[in-house]
Design brief:
By secondary structure, the chain is mainly α. The chain is built from 8 helices and no strands.
């Protein structure tokens, strides 16, 4: 035979968790009859009164169980997980948008630098390349453009510095070897003919 507390727990589970009011009512009545001097009897009477009112007005929110059932808990967990997924997705999406904007700005600056260079405004080109380098220091294009600009103007020391930065950003770039050869040839000519910069 089950104790008063065991019956009460089972009734409570049926009432509040599963929504099986009829079975819960049977168990509450059993508690009242079999355990007339227990604390559980007092609790069972309160629940029986609530269930009686609930039968007359099943949609009354104040008569519904106070605690949600396992479905409510599952819904809470699913809602929480959904919120985490949405926030994570927004974070990842935001990161990719930010990276895309950085890459677009970088490419625009390098392109503007090349246009400035073709227009003969080397100072403006150098400023644009430097700005691009700050935005994406791991991208080699701005270092390459700056190195070629310095080489064109016979600034071999600065060209060598930019070549080294270019090599750090893209060590396997085949154009790097080609540039090194041009820089070495230009430096040799300068050394043999007129002195080093």
């Amino acid at each position: 035979m089950a104790s008063a507390i065991e019956l009460y727990r089972e009734a409570y589970e049926a009432d509040y968790r599963r929504g099986d009011w009829q079975y819960a009512e049977e168990l509450y009545r059993k508690i009242v009859e079999q355990f007339p001097y227990s604390d559980e009897k007092e609790y069972a009477l309160v629940h029986l009164e609530r269930l009686e009112k609930l039968k007359n007005n099943p949609k009354e929110p104040s008569l519904q169980p106070v605690r949600g059932g396992s479905d409510g808990n599952a819904l809470s967990v699913v809602s929480f997980l959904l919120i985490i997924v949405v926030i994570s997705g927004a974070g990842v999406g935001g990161y990719y948008v930010w990276q895309y904007c950085k890459a677009t700005t970088y490419n625009d600056l390098v392109l503007q630098g090349l246009i400035s260079e073709k227009a003969g405004d080397d100072a403006s080109a150098a400023v644009k390349y430097r700005h691009a380098q700050k935005i994406m220091p791991g991208n080699a294009l701005a270092y390459r453009s700056m190195a070629e600009l310095y080489l064109e103007h016979n600034k071999y020391t600065l060209a060598e510095i930019e070549r080294k930065r270019w090599a750090l950003a893209s060590p396997d770039d085949p154009a790097l070897r080609e540039f090194q050869t041009k820089l070495n040839d230009a430096t040799r000519v300068k050394t043999n003919g007129q002195g080093v910069e």
